Every structure is written in C-alpha cells, then in structure tokens.
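Dear Dr. H.,

I hope your travels went smoothly. While you were away I took the liberty of generating a structure for the chain from your last submission, since the lab meeting agenda had it listed for discussion. I wanted you to have the full record in hand beforehand rather than looking at slides cold. The sequence, exactly as received, is reproduced here:
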Amino acid sequence: MSSDSSLLFQHCPDGSGAPVLPNNTQTAVCGFPSRFENSSVTTGLSGCCEGGVETFGCNSYCSYSQGLARFTACLQNNTDVSNSTLPYAFCQSNIAARNIRSVPGQSSGGSRRYTAPSITGTLLVVMLLAFFAAPTAAAIVHSLDKNPVKRQSSSGCTFDQKANYTTIRNTLQVTAHGYTCASSEGFCPSQAFVDTGLDRNNRTVNGTSAAEPVYDILFGVISNATGRSFPAMTSLLINHEFSVMGGSGGTLGFTPYAWCANGTASGCGNALGSDSVFVDVCGPMFVDENEEIIQGTLLFIVSS
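The corresponding predicted structure, in token form, is as follows:
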C-alpha cells in the first residue's frame, strides 16, 4: 500500500470525502467515518463484522457481505454510533484497476498493456466537500493526439527533481442516471457499479494530458528516480453502496488524487520541445502500488 495515500485522509471534517481504502480480505467491506465517535463505537463495530476491524485515515471498516441496509441496521442496533453518522456508512466490493501503461504510437512498436484486474474490496464514504479541502486540481484531458509520435530513445534523458506534492483532480460524474430519496425517508441505501473511464485520468505534463507514447521515456526516467508508476491512462472499477439523504437527489462523482513532481527535464527528445525545460508532471496516486488501483474519493453530488 502506498504509505503517503493514507496521510491525505487523517482528518474528516463534516462533509469531507473519504478515500478508496485497502482491503486484503478479497471480500465485500463496509464501514463509516469514526473520527467523531467515541472508542466504544469502534469496539462495538466488531459485533457487526465478519472479520477484524481495520482503520484507514479517519475511517473504520471490516468485512461484511450482507449489504449496506443490514450493515447500517446493525450499527444502529449494536453500537452507539450517532444518527448523524449513519447516513455515511458505505459498502464496497469488486474493485479492479483497468490501466494502460503505454498507448501504441505511430510505428512505435509499442504494445497496449492493461494491469491485470485485481478484485479487492475497499471502502469509502460518500460526502460532499472533498474538493474544497485540497490544492487546485490539475487539468484532465479526455483525448489523445490522433497520430501520436513514437516513443523516443531514453539515451540522455534526465529529470532533476526539485519538489513533489499531492493534489486532487477534477471531479468526474461516474453514473449516467440520478439517485433520489423521498423526503419521508431519513436516508435511502443505493448502489452503483462505477467505471471511471480510461480517458479521464491521464498522466500530465504542465497540466495537459501526456498519455501519448512520446512521453514514455520521460515518465520512465521519473519512475526510476521516484520509485512510482506512471501509466499513460488509468481507471477504477468498483461496486459502491452508499446512502442518499431523504428529500434529495443527485449523481455519484469520483475525485481522483494525483502525485506530482516538478524539476528540470533535459535531453528528452520531442516530448518537451526543448533540450532543457522546467516541468510539472503528475500521475495517479494508488491505494496499492503493486496492484495500481487508483486513489480518490467517491462522493454523492446533490442536485436537488
């Protein structure tokens, strides 16, 4: 697991989002934001679990296969969790990475490679204001050049890193239809299978999509220097159960997180159009660096 990803979510003020969480059980998991609850709530959670209680940032979660409605009822009946927290309980299953490391270029001989789908349970909480609590989002470009230039030789390409940071990207709408809950209901459990889309979370150079193979050598050099992976294009597949508050409606969104570095790149061929230039490069953050499941926040976006 990427150790720095959990540090992004140590604080959960009311209305903040929660990350995609790691899960080693290969089963469905359910949880809730426990930061504002007393320790007895976390202890009591074990009575609703099919395994041990885990924590990530400010969230407590565990294996649970009976769905969100039953999990919420169990929390209400067996713990002291507050009524204000119950609507933010969630369940998650069947998470997988669908990434392309390198896009085939014009006569480049490159091959399209996908990460093998890794089904792993994770957690997240659906809340609204995650994107207000992070730095300015990097641009996401939805298309590639029609005739991408072939990848360049790595000979002489260097990157002198000056700094690195994490940031959020633009929130993506990831459900085609809306979800509603009658005003007479306190909240309504809902479910969506999410595919964030391959062309919506590309690696970037100076805020612009850099999925084309001409950038492969540059990102290969940066990857070797930082120990991080920079696939050309990435997406998240996940089955997510969440609650909609009574009297409201809206859609589900996903806000991906990015790891960025800036510094001087030299001798990198056609990628930058200059022999030596200061650049800001970004790639996805991962829940798990080995499986390359992208990190981010799922959130319910209220529209009515």
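Two observations you may find useful: Residues 253 and 295 are 14 Å apart (CA to CA). The longest helix spans residues 68-78.

With kind regards,
E. W.
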